[in-house]
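Retro notes, item 3 of 5
We never archived the inputs for the magnesium ion complex last cycle. Fixing that now. Sequence and ligand:
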Amino acid sequence: MAKMYYDQDVQLDVLQGKTVAVIGYGSQGHAHAQNLRDNGINVVIGLRRGKSWEKAEEDGFQVYSVSEATQQADIVMLLLPDESQPQVYEQEIKPYLRENQALAFAHGFNVHFNQVVPPDNVDVFLVAPKGPGHVVRRVFQEGGGVPGLIAVYQDVTGQAKEIALAYSKGIGCTRAAVIETTFREETETDLFGEQAVLCGGLAALIKAGFETLTEAGYQPEVVYFECLHEMKLIVDLIYEEGLAGMRYSVSDTAQWGDLTAGPRIINEQTKQEMKKLLEEIQSGQFAKGWVLENQANRPMFNALTRRENEHLIEQVGRQLREKMPFVKGKGVLKDVVTSA
Ligand code: NDP
Ligand code: MG
Ligand code: MG
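Structure as it came back at the time:
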Protein backbone atom coordinates (compact mmCIF):
# COMPACT_ATOMS: atom_id res chain seq x y z
CA MET A 1 0.00 0.00 0.00
CA ALA A 2 1.35 3.40 -0.96
CA LYS A 3 2.33 5.78 1.82
CA MET A 4 -0.15 8.65 1.78
CA TYR A 5 -0.03 12.09 3.36
CA TYR A 6 -2.92 14.46 4.01
CA ASP A 7 -3.22 18.00 5.42
CA GLN A 8 -3.24 16.88 9.05
CA ASP A 9 -0.05 14.80 8.58
CA VAL A 10 2.11 17.69 7.38
CA GLN A 11 3.31 20.93 8.99
CA LEU A 12 4.25 24.04 7.02
CA ASP A 13 6.63 25.16 9.80
CA VAL A 14 9.78 23.96 8.08
CA LEU A 15 9.15 26.55 5.34
CA GLN A 16 8.63 29.47 7.71
CA GLY A 17 11.43 32.03 7.39
CA LYS A 18 12.66 30.33 4.24
CA THR A 19 12.55 31.77 0.73
CA VAL A 20 11.34 29.71 -2.20
CA ALA A 21 12.61 30.77 -5.63
CA VAL A 22 10.13 29.62 -8.24
CA ILE A 23 12.11 29.53 -11.49
CA GLY A 24 9.68 30.04 -14.38
CA TYR A 25 6.19 31.49 -14.28
CA GLY A 26 4.33 29.30 -16.76
CA SER A 27 1.72 26.64 -16.22
CA GLN A 28 3.17 25.21 -12.98
CA GLY A 29 5.22 28.27 -11.99
CA HIS A 30 2.35 30.71 -11.52
CA ALA A 31 0.30 28.11 -9.64
CA HIS A 32 3.09 27.12 -7.21
CA ALA A 33 4.05 30.74 -6.60
CA GLN A 34 0.52 31.96 -5.94
CA ASN A 35 -0.56 28.97 -3.83
CA LEU A 36 2.60 29.16 -1.68
CA ARG A 37 2.12 32.90 -1.21
CA ASP A 38 -1.50 32.38 -0.17
CA ASN A 39 -0.13 30.01 2.47
CA GLY A 40 2.14 32.75 3.85
CA ILE A 41 5.37 31.46 2.36
CA ASN A 42 7.99 33.85 1.08
CA VAL A 43 8.30 33.48 -2.71
CA VAL A 44 10.53 35.16 -5.28
CA ILE A 45 10.43 34.45 -9.02
CA GLY A 46 13.45 33.76 -11.24
CA LEU A 47 13.08 34.49 -14.97
CA ARG A 48 14.54 35.97 -18.10
CA ARG A 49 13.12 39.30 -19.30
CA GLY A 50 9.90 38.77 -21.25
CA LYS A 51 6.22 38.07 -21.07
CA SER A 52 6.29 35.95 -17.93
CA TRP A 53 8.43 38.51 -16.14
CA GLU A 54 5.79 41.18 -16.73
CA LYS A 55 3.00 38.85 -15.69
CA ALA A 56 4.71 37.85 -12.46
CA GLU A 57 5.28 41.51 -11.60
CA GLU A 58 1.65 42.32 -12.39
CA ASP A 59 0.70 39.54 -9.99
CA GLY A 60 2.71 41.31 -7.31
CA PHE A 61 5.84 39.15 -7.13
CA GLN A 62 9.45 40.22 -6.79
CA VAL A 63 11.10 39.04 -9.99
CA TYR A 64 14.83 38.50 -10.46
CA SER A 65 17.16 36.89 -12.94
CA VAL A 66 17.47 33.16 -12.44
CA SER A 67 20.91 33.50 -10.84
CA GLU A 68 19.79 36.27 -8.46
CA ALA A 69 16.70 34.35 -7.42
CA THR A 70 18.85 31.26 -6.83
CA GLN A 71 21.17 33.22 -4.55
CA GLN A 72 18.28 34.57 -2.48
CA ALA A 73 16.59 31.23 -2.04
CA ASP A 74 16.68 28.38 0.41
CA ILE A 75 14.63 26.24 -1.97
CA VAL A 76 15.04 26.55 -5.73
CA MET A 77 12.05 25.06 -7.57
CA LEU A 78 12.85 24.57 -11.25
CA LEU A 79 9.66 25.12 -13.26
CA LEU A 80 11.03 25.87 -16.69
CA PRO A 81 10.05 23.65 -19.62
CA ASP A 82 11.93 20.36 -19.15
CA GLU A 83 13.92 20.84 -22.34
CA SER A 84 15.34 24.24 -21.31
CA GLN A 85 16.19 23.21 -17.76
CA PRO A 86 19.63 21.66 -18.46
CA GLN A 87 21.10 24.75 -20.09
CA VAL A 88 19.61 27.25 -17.64
CA TYR A 89 20.70 25.02 -14.76
CA GLU A 90 24.30 24.83 -15.99
CA GLN A 91 24.66 28.54 -16.66
CA GLU A 92 22.47 30.28 -14.12
CA ILE A 93 21.81 27.96 -11.21
CA LYS A 94 24.67 25.52 -10.65
CA PRO A 95 27.38 28.19 -10.22
CA TYR A 96 25.30 29.87 -7.50
CA LEU A 97 24.09 26.90 -5.46
CA ARG A 98 25.18 26.84 -1.81
CA GLU A 99 25.67 23.90 0.48
CA ASN A 100 22.44 22.75 2.19
CA GLN A 101 20.18 24.58 -0.23
CA ALA A 102 17.38 22.55 -1.80
CA LEU A 103 17.00 22.01 -5.54
CA ALA A 104 13.47 20.94 -6.44
CA PHE A 105 11.62 19.72 -9.50
CA ALA A 106 8.01 19.08 -10.50
CA HIS A 107 9.00 16.18 -12.75
CA GLY A 108 11.89 13.76 -12.50
CA PHE A 109 12.85 13.68 -16.19
CA ASN A 110 16.05 15.70 -16.15
CA VAL A 111 17.52 14.19 -13.01
CA HIS A 112 16.47 10.63 -13.82
CA PHE A 113 17.81 10.83 -17.38
CA ASN A 114 20.99 12.68 -16.34
CA GLN A 115 20.27 15.95 -18.13
CA VAL A 116 20.72 17.82 -14.84
CA VAL A 117 23.35 16.45 -12.47
CA PRO A 118 23.01 18.16 -9.08
CA PRO A 119 26.05 18.66 -6.85
CA ASP A 120 26.17 16.31 -3.88
CA ASN A 121 25.92 19.02 -1.21
CA VAL A 122 22.29 20.11 -1.76
CA ASP A 123 18.96 18.45 -1.04
CA VAL A 124 17.22 17.29 -4.20
CA PHE A 125 13.54 16.43 -4.25
CA LEU A 126 10.47 16.59 -6.42
CA VAL A 127 6.92 17.69 -5.81
CA ALA A 128 4.86 16.69 -8.81
CA PRO A 129 1.23 17.75 -8.90
CA LYS A 130 -0.83 15.24 -10.88
CA GLY A 131 -2.62 17.91 -12.90
CA PRO A 132 -2.09 20.85 -15.25
CA GLY A 133 -0.77 24.01 -13.62
CA HIS A 134 -3.85 26.07 -14.32
CA VAL A 135 -5.93 23.46 -12.55
CA VAL A 136 -3.49 23.40 -9.61
CA ARG A 137 -4.29 27.07 -9.11
CA ARG A 138 -8.02 26.92 -9.87
CA VAL A 139 -8.79 23.98 -7.61
CA PHE A 140 -6.71 25.55 -4.80
CA GLN A 141 -8.78 28.75 -5.03
CA GLU A 142 -11.92 26.67 -4.81
CA GLY A 143 -10.63 25.18 -1.55
CA GLY A 144 -9.50 21.86 -2.99
CA GLY A 145 -6.23 20.47 -4.23
CA VAL A 146 -4.67 18.40 -6.99
CA PRO A 147 -3.04 15.16 -5.80
CA GLY A 148 0.75 15.15 -5.83
CA LEU A 149 3.81 12.95 -5.64
CA ILE A 150 6.94 13.65 -3.62
CA ALA A 151 10.32 11.97 -3.93
CA VAL A 152 13.71 12.59 -2.38
CA TYR A 153 16.72 12.02 -4.63
CA GLN A 154 19.32 13.33 -2.24
CA ASP A 155 19.03 14.25 1.44
CA VAL A 156 21.93 16.33 2.70
CA THR A 157 20.24 18.26 5.50
CA GLY A 158 18.21 15.38 6.89
CA GLN A 159 15.15 17.54 6.24
CA ALA A 160 14.61 16.96 2.52
CA LYS A 161 11.48 14.89 2.92
CA GLU A 162 9.97 17.23 5.49
CA ILE A 163 10.59 20.18 3.17
CA ALA A 164 9.13 18.34 0.18
CA LEU A 165 6.02 17.45 2.15
CA ALA A 166 5.62 21.01 3.43
CA TYR A 167 6.01 22.31 -0.11
CA SER A 168 3.36 19.90 -1.35
CA LYS A 169 1.04 21.17 1.37
CA GLY A 170 1.92 24.76 0.44
CA ILE A 171 0.63 24.25 -3.09
CA GLY A 172 -2.49 22.43 -1.90
CA CYS A 173 -1.66 18.82 -2.83
CA THR A 174 -2.18 17.38 0.68
CA ARG A 175 -5.82 18.50 0.48
CA ALA A 176 -6.26 15.70 -2.09
CA ALA A 177 -3.45 13.21 -1.32
CA VAL A 178 0.31 13.13 -1.50
CA ILE A 179 2.12 9.89 -2.20
CA GLU A 180 5.80 9.20 -1.64
CA THR A 181 7.55 7.81 -4.69
CA THR A 182 10.97 7.79 -6.39
CA PHE A 183 12.29 9.92 -9.23
CA ARG A 184 12.24 6.83 -11.40
CA GLU A 185 8.64 5.87 -10.66
CA GLU A 186 7.37 9.43 -11.05
CA THR A 187 9.21 9.93 -14.34
CA GLU A 188 8.25 6.65 -15.96
CA THR A 189 4.59 6.68 -14.89
CA ASP A 190 4.19 10.34 -15.83
CA LEU A 191 5.64 9.86 -19.31
CA PHE A 192 3.59 6.71 -19.85
CA GLY A 193 0.39 8.35 -18.60
CA GLU A 194 0.66 11.38 -20.84
CA GLN A 195 1.66 9.31 -23.89
CA ALA A 196 -0.65 6.32 -23.67
CA VAL A 197 -3.68 7.58 -21.80
CA LEU A 198 -4.10 11.24 -20.89
CA CYS A 199 -2.82 13.18 -23.88
CA GLY A 200 -1.74 10.79 -26.64
CA GLY A 201 -4.31 8.04 -26.15
CA LEU A 202 -7.18 10.42 -25.47
CA ALA A 203 -6.45 12.77 -28.38
CA ALA A 204 -6.07 9.82 -30.76
CA LEU A 205 -9.32 8.25 -29.56
CA ILE A 206 -11.27 11.50 -30.00
CA LYS A 207 -9.78 12.08 -33.44
CA ALA A 208 -10.36 8.53 -34.66
CA GLY A 209 -14.00 8.71 -33.59
CA PHE A 210 -14.42 12.13 -35.21
CA GLU A 211 -12.83 11.01 -38.46
CA THR A 212 -14.82 7.78 -38.67
CA LEU A 213 -18.13 9.62 -38.37
CA THR A 214 -17.31 12.64 -40.56
CA GLU A 215 -15.82 10.40 -43.28
CA ALA A 216 -19.13 8.51 -43.21
CA GLY A 217 -20.89 11.79 -44.00
CA TYR A 218 -22.18 12.90 -40.61
CA GLN A 219 -22.17 16.62 -39.85
CA PRO A 220 -18.90 17.72 -38.22
CA GLU A 221 -20.74 19.84 -35.65
CA VAL A 222 -22.83 16.89 -34.48
CA VAL A 223 -19.73 14.74 -34.35
CA TYR A 224 -17.73 17.36 -32.44
CA PHE A 225 -20.32 17.42 -29.67
CA GLU A 226 -20.52 13.63 -29.66
CA CYS A 227 -16.82 12.78 -29.61
CA LEU A 228 -15.11 15.77 -28.00
CA HIS A 229 -17.42 18.06 -26.05
CA GLU A 230 -19.26 15.26 -24.30
CA MET A 231 -15.96 13.65 -23.31
CA LYS A 232 -15.64 16.11 -20.45
CA LEU A 233 -19.14 15.44 -19.22
CA ILE A 234 -18.42 11.72 -19.12
CA VAL A 235 -14.97 12.17 -17.59
CA ASP A 236 -16.45 14.39 -14.85
CA LEU A 237 -18.65 11.47 -13.82
CA ILE A 238 -15.66 9.13 -13.83
CA TYR A 239 -13.64 11.66 -11.79
CA GLU A 240 -16.40 11.94 -9.23
CA GLU A 241 -17.58 8.33 -8.89
CA GLY A 242 -15.29 6.09 -10.90
CA LEU A 243 -16.22 4.04 -13.95
CA ALA A 244 -19.15 2.60 -11.99
CA GLY A 245 -20.55 6.12 -11.43
CA MET A 246 -20.37 6.82 -15.14
CA ARG A 247 -22.09 3.50 -15.93
CA TYR A 248 -24.81 4.25 -13.42
CA SER A 249 -25.55 7.62 -15.02
CA VAL A 250 -25.55 6.68 -18.71
CA SER A 251 -28.39 4.69 -20.24
CA ASP A 252 -28.35 0.91 -20.07
CA THR A 253 -27.96 0.88 -23.84
CA ALA A 254 -24.83 3.01 -23.50
CA GLN A 255 -23.56 0.77 -20.73
CA TRP A 256 -24.12 -2.36 -22.83
CA GLY A 257 -22.25 -0.71 -25.71
CA ASP A 258 -19.46 0.34 -23.36
CA LEU A 259 -19.03 -3.15 -21.91
CA THR A 260 -19.09 -4.99 -25.23
CA ALA A 261 -17.47 -2.53 -27.69
CA GLY A 262 -14.82 -0.90 -25.48
CA PRO A 263 -12.51 -3.93 -25.40
CA ARG A 264 -12.72 -4.17 -29.22
CA ILE A 265 -11.38 -0.62 -29.55
CA ILE A 266 -8.69 -0.76 -26.87
CA ASN A 267 -7.68 -4.37 -27.38
CA GLU A 268 -4.80 -6.78 -26.87
CA GLN A 269 -2.90 -5.17 -29.74
CA THR A 270 -3.30 -1.74 -28.14
CA LYS A 271 -1.97 -3.13 -24.90
CA GLN A 272 1.01 -4.68 -26.66
CA GLU A 273 1.79 -1.24 -28.09
CA MET A 274 1.44 0.29 -24.61
CA LYS A 275 4.02 -2.19 -23.34
CA LYS A 276 6.36 -1.13 -26.15
CA LEU A 277 5.90 2.53 -25.21
CA LEU A 278 6.68 1.69 -21.60
CA GLU A 279 9.81 -0.20 -22.59
CA GLU A 280 11.00 2.78 -24.67
CA ILE A 281 10.44 5.05 -21.67
CA GLN A 282 12.20 2.72 -19.24
CA SER A 283 15.19 2.19 -21.52
CA GLY A 284 15.77 5.92 -22.03
CA GLN A 285 15.03 5.64 -25.76
CA PHE A 286 12.13 8.08 -25.55
CA ALA A 287 14.18 10.55 -23.50
CA LYS A 288 17.06 10.41 -25.96
CA GLY A 289 14.74 11.06 -28.91
CA TRP A 290 13.15 14.05 -27.20
CA VAL A 291 16.51 15.53 -26.20
CA LEU A 292 17.77 15.17 -29.79
CA GLU A 293 14.54 16.59 -31.25
CA ASN A 294 15.14 19.71 -29.15
CA GLN A 295 18.78 19.95 -30.18
CA ALA A 296 17.61 19.81 -33.81
CA ASN A 297 15.26 22.76 -33.18
CA ARG A 298 12.10 20.62 -33.05
CA PRO A 299 11.41 19.87 -36.73
CA MET A 300 8.91 17.09 -36.03
CA PHE A 301 7.36 18.67 -32.96
CA ASN A 302 6.53 21.82 -34.91
CA ALA A 303 5.36 20.10 -38.09
CA LEU A 304 3.11 17.66 -36.25
CA THR A 305 1.67 20.38 -34.01
CA ARG A 306 0.88 22.56 -37.01
CA ARG A 307 -0.81 19.69 -38.81
CA GLU A 308 -2.90 18.85 -35.75
CA ASN A 309 -3.99 22.47 -35.28
CA GLU A 310 -5.34 22.53 -38.83
CA HIS A 311 -7.47 19.40 -38.36
CA LEU A 312 -11.18 19.81 -39.04
CA ILE A 313 -12.01 19.02 -35.43
CA GLU A 314 -10.09 22.12 -34.33
CA GLN A 315 -11.71 24.39 -36.92
CA VAL A 316 -15.20 23.23 -36.01
CA GLY A 317 -14.41 23.36 -32.32
CA ARG A 318 -13.16 26.94 -32.40
CA GLN A 319 -16.42 28.06 -34.02
CA LEU A 320 -18.67 26.13 -31.68
CA ARG A 321 -16.84 27.26 -28.54
CA GLU A 322 -17.20 30.91 -29.62
CA LYS A 323 -20.92 30.47 -28.95
CA MET A 324 -20.33 28.87 -25.57
CA PRO A 325 -18.55 31.53 -23.51
CA PHE A 326 -19.28 29.47 -20.38
CA VAL A 327 -17.03 26.78 -21.84
CA LYS A 328 -14.23 29.08 -22.97
CA GLY A 329 -13.80 31.39 -20.01
CA LYS A 330 -10.45 30.22 -18.72
CA GLY A 331 -8.40 31.51 -21.66
CA VAL A 332 -5.47 29.09 -21.22
CA LEU A 333 -5.05 28.98 -25.01
CA LYS A 334 -5.34 32.73 -25.65
CA ASP A 335 -1.94 33.11 -27.30
CA VAL A 336 -2.08 29.89 -29.30
CA VAL A 337 -5.56 30.33 -30.73
CA THR A 338 -4.98 33.80 -32.14
CA SER A 339 -1.83 32.68 -33.92
CA ALA A 340 -3.35 29.48 -35.32
P1 NDP B 1 5.95 26.13 -19.02
O1 NDP B 1 6.31 25.84 -20.43
O2 NDP B 1 4.56 26.54 -18.74
O3 NDP B 1 6.99 27.21 -18.42
C1 NDP B 1 7.41 28.28 -19.14
C2 NDP B 1 8.07 29.27 -18.20
O4 NDP B 1 9.47 29.13 -18.23
C3 NDP B 1 7.73 30.65 -18.65
O5 NDP B 1 7.58 31.48 -17.53
C4 NDP B 1 8.97 31.02 -19.46
O6 NDP B 1 9.18 32.40 -19.52
C5 NDP B 1 10.05 30.36 -18.64
N1 NDP B 1 11.25 30.10 -19.40
C6 NDP B 1 11.37 29.32 -20.50
N2 NDP B 1 12.66 29.30 -20.90
C7 NDP B 1 13.34 30.07 -20.04
C8 NDP B 1 14.71 30.44 -19.94
N3 NDP B 1 15.62 30.02 -20.83
N4 NDP B 1 15.08 31.26 -18.93
C9 NDP B 1 14.16 31.72 -18.04
N5 NDP B 1 12.85 31.39 -18.09
C10 NDP B 1 12.45 30.59 -19.08
O7 NDP B 1 6.40 24.88 -18.12
P2 NDP B 1 5.44 23.90 -17.31
O8 NDP B 1 4.85 24.63 -16.16
O9 NDP B 1 4.59 23.15 -18.25
O10 NDP B 1 6.53 22.85 -16.77
C11 NDP B 1 7.38 23.16 -15.70
C12 NDP B 1 7.78 21.86 -15.02
O11 NDP B 1 6.62 21.29 -14.41
C13 NDP B 1 8.31 20.80 -15.95
O12 NDP B 1 9.31 20.08 -15.27
C14 NDP B 1 7.11 19.89 -16.20
O13 NDP B 1 7.43 18.56 -16.54
C15 NDP B 1 6.46 19.95 -14.83
N6 NDP B 1 5.04 19.64 -14.83
C16 NDP B 1 4.22 20.33 -15.65
C17 NDP B 1 2.86 20.11 -15.63
C18 NDP B 1 1.96 21.03 -16.38
O14 NDP B 1 0.82 21.11 -16.01
N7 NDP B 1 2.37 21.73 -17.42
C19 NDP B 1 2.28 19.05 -14.80
C20 NDP B 1 3.22 18.47 -13.83
C21 NDP B 1 4.57 18.74 -13.90
P3 NDP B 1 8.94 33.27 -20.87
O15 NDP B 1 7.57 33.86 -20.76
O16 NDP B 1 10.02 34.28 -20.81
O17 NDP B 1 9.06 32.33 -22.03
MG1 MG C 1 1.90 14.50 -15.65
MG1 MG D 1 4.58 15.15 -17.74
